[in-house]
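Why do we care about 3D structure at all? Because function follows from shape, and shape follows, mostly, from sequence. That is the central idea of this module. The next example makes it concrete: a single protein chain, its amino acid sequence, and then its structure expressed as tokens.
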Amino acid sequence: QAQLVESGGGLVQGGGSLRLSCAASGRTFSSYAMGWFRQAPGKEREFVAAISRSGGMTYYADSVKGRFTISRDNAKNTVYLQMNSLKPEDTAVYYCAAGAMAWDNLRTPTEYDYWGQGTQVTVSS
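And the structure:
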């Protein structure tokens, strides 16, 4: 069983940057693909980015492609989300998730096995 703890959220002006971290407990971190999702008030949880077990493959939502970068350090049991050129519409609670699902299903929240508690990101205009 894995436990995930996000950090790094906060308030930033539009055009600014933040780096989110997600620290995982347990010895099987490298067995899971990792994803970042976000949920704004009144909206459904949406996929942001995912990274394969080894880190060799990444995938992004169109809305963040070119601005966000997902990475992982399996030695530190940590996944990161570097967010640049932030926009007000990026404001949401950001969640990391771990899953053993097939890579084809990485955009689907229900395919992930473990979730963090979320960290708030607020981008002012």
